[in-house]
Amino acid sequence: MSARTYTFTSQSVEQTQSLAAQLASCVEAGDVVALDGDLGAGKTHFTQGLAEGLGVADLVTSPTFTVMVAYDSGRLPLYHFDLYRLEDALQLEDVAFYDYVDADGVSCVEWASKFADELPDHTLWLSITTGEDGARTIQATARDQRAIDLLDAWIAAASAL
């Protein structure tokens, strides 16, 4: 099976969050969304939109120092990870990473490429870059059938905007 890639463009924080909310309408329990990008690229803004789309009532902020925050008030639980401060894959055990990724919610993982081999095959990979004009490019890559199905559903949902 070959990977599928699609590129979204966002002109604002609000548009990034709206794209993420559209993805939220497509996710199912067990889905994993991996986010990569430089500091300030919009990973947390994306996660905020995903949370809003899931109906999470809480304020979503980056869990840089806590590594993981669980939000249970939405349609599905959202497990928000920030792996920036971790240095070794063994530290993932300390935050019960594997338990949450295999749980009944949606895992959103910032700085995921630090431990790419630790994420499941069905992960939807998102790379967020910022252009000189401030626009964000969100390149989505799916390598497994579930991730491809999720990407296709997201493309359809986003095109309906």
Structure commentary:
- 30% of the residues lie in helices and 25% in strands.
- By secondary structure, the chain is α/β, with parallel strands linked by helices.
- Strands 1-7-6-2-5-4-3 form a 7-stranded mixed beta sheet.
- A hairpin with a 6-residue loop joins strand 3 and strand 4.
- Helix 1 crosses helix 2 and helix 1 packs across helix 5.
- The longest helix has 15 residues.
- The radius of gyration is 14 Å and the shape is globular.
- The chain starts with a strand and ends with a helix.
- The model has no long low-confidence stretch (mean pLDDT 93).
- Integer-rounded radius of gyration: 14 Å
Query: How does the overall form come out from the CA principal axes?
Result: globular
Low-confidence regions: none
How many beta strands in the DSSP annotation? 7
Hey, roughly how much beta strand do the residues contain?
15-25%
Summarize the structure.
With 161 residues, the chain is an alpha/beta fold. The protein contains five helices and seven strands, in the order E-H-E-H-E-E-H-H-E-E-E-H. Helix 1 packs across helix 2.
Keyphrases for this structure?
seven-stranded mixed sheet, 161 residues, alpha/beta, 25% strand
Task: List the topology elements.
Blueprint: E1 4-10, H1 13-24, E2 32-36, H2 43-54, E3 68-71, E4 78-82, H3 91-94, H4 97-101, E5 106-110, E6 124-130, E7 136-142, H5 145-159
Parallel strand pairs: 2-5, 2-6, 4-5
Antiparallel strand pairs: 1-7, 3-4, 6-7
Helix pairs in contact: 1-2, 1-5
